Amino acid sequence: MTPNEHEASAAASGAAATDRFRQSGKTGHAVADQARVNELASALIQAANDIVLEKKVTYDEYNALKSWLIQVGEDGEWPLFLDVWLEHSVEEVATSHREGNKGSIEGPYYVPDAPQPQDNRTIPMREDESGTPLLFKGQITSTDGTPLPNAKIELWHADAEGFYSQFAPDLPEWNLRGTFHADDQGNFEIDTVQPAPYQIPTDGACGKLIAAAGWHAWRPAHLHLKFSAEGHELLTAQLYFPGDEHNDDDIATAVKPELMLDIQPAESGTGVQTTYDVRLDPVSTQTPDTVPGE
Ligand code: MBD
Ligand code: FE
User: Which domain holds residue 123?
Assistant: First the structure.
């Protein structure tokens, strides 16, 4: 991979992630409650002012911040910046009530409605797709153990070079993105390949911050998943591979011990396999108004 190819994919991935977010339908849920906007915006502005006063921020530093924030927008990297450094806390708040499997952040590279392969098993990939073949299987149940027939599994991940289709040049649309359904016992089996670790583009605004601060730009190799079933909360997760050098210092703070896969040699003799069972939380019938004590 030459620096020029990295540059090309940095520009493409930022713009594509920004477009994707605009089309996601999530922008329509803006918080309209004035008291809440006041509370959150005031707290954020206060926190920033506290930092300026406490750290004695200079005009040069203030102007560096201003030009960097402008650059984040020009590079299309707001989705990347927010998902890498903030989404993990939002995810923690959103899922703290759950009893079923732990999840993790969605990140900037999800695309809804990925193809459903005819065999309900093989993720779309190039004929010569490189990487270790990976059989990913498991069972989806409710938290009480009841199998969830026909549960939906969406899987997307980087290729063996660390690139995501639709966000990097020269990859077929939907490469390594698929939608699958569990059988009548909630069981699923998916054939894919092992992804490589992901590096934040080095030439964009986020990469410049990482270099200027002396951090590293890596996420450990990961699978992205969404598990859904009628009457159950959507589980958005990432799963990780033991031994990855960045499992303990993920730049996006999205690794949890419960999300580590158990990778074994494949019974087929080719590649590796892993079994990951998933328990989904039933949608609560209690509205906040009926929670005792409220
Ligand atoms: C990724 O692949 C990712 O999963 C996250 C959360 C942020 C940046 C790139
Ligand atoms: Fe990712």
Answer: 5-30+77-280
